[in-house]
């Protein structure tokens, strides 16, 4: 059994954690647990949330013209390959739109090991997508041209300089730089991995990202709910914490897709040099006509689904040094008879713990959660998948969805278990829906069994059959499996050491 330490950076704990890092030997590890449950309630003097950034904010305004690249982002493809993605051309919002021609602009990446000296050129694919709402008063959207290029045959632990765009116009980006990860082994790990969930595009979001940049991560794990574009009308109105409350007569929960472009620009200073590995959340579903879902997510982000044997970009895996990451989809079939489960079993069978001794999983909605919000919402998924993750010895599981922080003691089937994973909720990135502050064990805060219906899958709420909460839907105190919970916003930093 391995142990680990996780630095959780939030607005309210940043200085405390910094002091703890200096005296690292005093920080308990997971092997010192299980820990007595601790609750740190939100300071009432702090704001629970903040407003969305306006579209003319300097951090999200478009500052390139015509076919020049913007929204540049990296993603891991394999230990020797990286995806480079970007957007060119003008997105359109209106009633009658004509999609751009992806073949009108080349997808090229020039790269090399020295600044200004590009010894290799890679070419890739490009595409566009549309988000359609043929209803009175609603507006459609068609994207700019989205480019994905895979750089292959890279050397491990090596710095590469690159430009992307179309050299024939010419319309190339400025120079960017990234560093590849070490070869997978039990003694080689990324420097630091940032973990973020439910980020959005608010003033709180900017603080989270500013703190994250200060921590100098070498990879970002984004556990769902990215831009919150579906908190807007397609007419571009002000974002709202509760869409259905503000627009009860809307025939469909339409989205303002330019917020995706704004989010890509906002993240570019970071994602153009640090790979960001994403998994979808409920705000990425974005239903449109003909039952189409996840169109923006599936088109904008390159992930190593094919490389990991997955037939869907909604779940995949990858290695980062001596860590094997499994990214699971909670909003696609997760039943034990389905394709995702079959892929998961095969992926776990292929993991060599002598090469990648750490096994980390991530998906958006948590299985273990003691907040009122989303309490037992994805109990069906837990019942289908928990046993196989336990069987293969998954070490840590990250989720978002609940807009707060909570770290669990090692647990399996709601029972403290020294061989169970440590579950961590980090859904407090700063989005417009604000932080969650109510706990299911607070008097009068236990949801009813009819609450917290998932946006995908069935309802499997249960009363506890044994222990201190026997016969009850909620505990009457902080559960034993909940080690620490805190309602502030921020991000996590995980450092893995041999």
TrEMBL record:
Domain Calcineurin-like phosphoesterase: 192-405
Record-annotated Purple acid phosphatase N-terminal domain positions: 69-180
Reaction(s) catalysed by this chain's protein: a phosphate monoester + H2O = an alcohol + phosphate
Statement: the UniProt record of this protein carries the keyword rRNA processing: no
Enzyme Commission (EC) number: 3.1.3.2
Keywords: Glycoprotein, Hydrolase, Signal, Zinc
Pfam families linked to this entry: Metallophos, Pur_ac_phosph_N
Cofactor: Fe cation
Signal sequence region: 1-23
GO molecular function: acid phosphatase activity; metal ion binding
InterPro entries the UniProt entry points to: Calcineurin-like_PHP, Metallo-depent_PP-like, MPP_PAP, PAPs-like, PAPs_N, Purple_acid_Pase-like_N
Family stated for the protein in its record: Belongs to the metallophosphoesterase superfamily. Purple acid phosphatase family.
UniProt protein name: Purple acid phosphatase
